[in-house]
Amino acid sequence: MADKKLSGEGEPKFSDLKKWFENFWYHYKTHTIIGAVALVTLIICVTQIATREESDFHLLYAGPQNIAYRDKAYMQDAVEAIADDYNSDGEVVATFSDIVMLSPEEREAAEENGAVFDNEFIMSSMNEFDQHIMNGETVICLLSPYMYARVPEGGFLPLAEVLDEVPEGTHDEYAIYLSKTEFGQYFEGMNDLPEDTLLCVRRLATTSIFTGKKKAEKAHAANVELFKKIVEFEAPEETDTTVPEETTVPDSVTDEVTVADDIPVTDDVTVVDIVDRTKTEMLATADALEGFWSDDEYDYSFPSIKSHYITVRYSDGTSENIKDAFATGRVTIADLDKFDIGYYAEPKVTDIEYKATFIRADIKYDDAYSAFAKYSENRSSIAISSTQHILVAHIDNEKDFAEFTTDISGYYQIDIAYGGEVSFIDKAAEYDEAFFEEKSLLILSLHESSGSISHEVDFVRGRKSPNVYMSIKRITPDFGTADMADWFAVIEVSKSDIDTAIDFDAWYYR
């Protein structure tokens, strides 16, 4: 017996177990994966439900706004003000989950302003949103149009099935704009959400089988009733808050200033303070530039999305959001400087008038590109960027143009008129001393895999300082020639439009 045990007889060998597992995985791989996903989903659903049993209602916000702790508390207070004590514990408790998610267009705009997004975090947030929608506990949703569209058709109850009368301000038959309801306008926190936030109510989820059908139906019915209260809420009538004529206007206001936008503004009303709550309350904000004002010369933006936390206070006791204050002309950039509110000022982008000529000038030698690059203003962009940039030469006087023409003539066929068009050397005769008195040239080097490809200018834009940039469109026919081709895009611009520019760049239209 001892010899048998030492030899391993009567016990399964590792190779046998491996073969069994491989055979099992081959036949039941799909079943195993589906089962594992279902188990994980069930654990998540049950965990979320178990951890929120103490609250009467749980709502979901998903959209571009990063909701601060205090604002979330305001939103919970708003719901608790009209909700019933569903679990009969003597206290009404409402909780919120908030998922920050920008649409692709919003992300693209933010990235153009320098924002950086974590793709793994975006995927994780999307998965979290999908779980909220699927698990059935979250019934009332406040969603951006982008997140609303992510829910499959039939996921929400039609308003006509929930409300006695469908009010104005609907997005479609399933959702209503929160900002169109008195609830969304009246309560603090709710009135700070984006104007296009949609209010909607989920259908009873199929996952109710895990929590008990009757219990799930009862909870869902309570949420539907709360949804009706939100939509049908009527704000209490406000008392007259105008300042009587005989009342002395205080020299300053306290932290308890009441917002009263309907108070008429007179020449005597002045800005007494601008408060940035992200500093005073250490509030977190989304890391992306937020434009808030523009004048003739500059575009102004905050370093993060935080305008809804910045309040302007006036000498008559009123206050308003910073964007509204700029829109009504009550504040100026000088006021931001006075009260130490940080911002960025970017010189305004303007379209520059131009005249463009595309001239074919094929290369003679392989190092022609390097010869042109000696005159280009954006060599570093070509080297470090994945964007397909185009070399740009900026020439503003006759002497430099003559030197440029002489130099590249050894590398490009500038004296040949292809297809009956003008050659570069013939065109160069137009750019004499008189031309350069008022104008400059921006010359772009284009290399194509086919001579049948043509081009046009998409735009020439710039700022008063410090840059000018151009976009070139390729026009590619369905059937092309097999010859390679090189082109010069010769763009004439007024010197006065680019006289302060120090950076020049160009790229193919994306």
In brief:
The protein is of the alpha+beta class.
Task: Describe the structure in your own words.
With 510 residues, the chain is α+β, with helices and mostly antiparallel strands. Helix content is 35%, strand content 22%. It has three domains: 52-232, 3-Layer(aba) Sandwich (D-Maltodextrin-Binding Protein, domain 2), CATH 3.40.190; 271-344, no CATH class; 350-508, no CATH class. It is elongated and about 90 Å long. 27% of the residues are buried.
What structural category characterises the helix and strand content?
alpha+beta
> Rounded to an integer, what's the Rg over CA atoms?
33 Å
DSSP helical segment count: 19
Total tally of structural domains = 3
Mean pLDDT: 80
Instruction: Write down the CATH topology of the largest domain.
Output: D-Maltodextrin-Binding Protein, domain 2
Shape: elongated
Secondary structure tally: strands: 19
Proportion of helical residues = 25-40%
Largest sheet: 5 strands, mixed
The end-to-end distance, rounded to whole angstroms, is: 78 Å
Note the beta-strand portion.
Answer: 15-25%
The CATH architecture of the largest domain can be named as: 3-Layer(aba) Sandwich
Model regions low in confidence, pLDDT < 50 over at least 5 residues: 1-12, 48-53, 239-266
Strand order of the largest sheet: 2-1-3-5-4
CATH class call of the largest domain: Alpha Beta
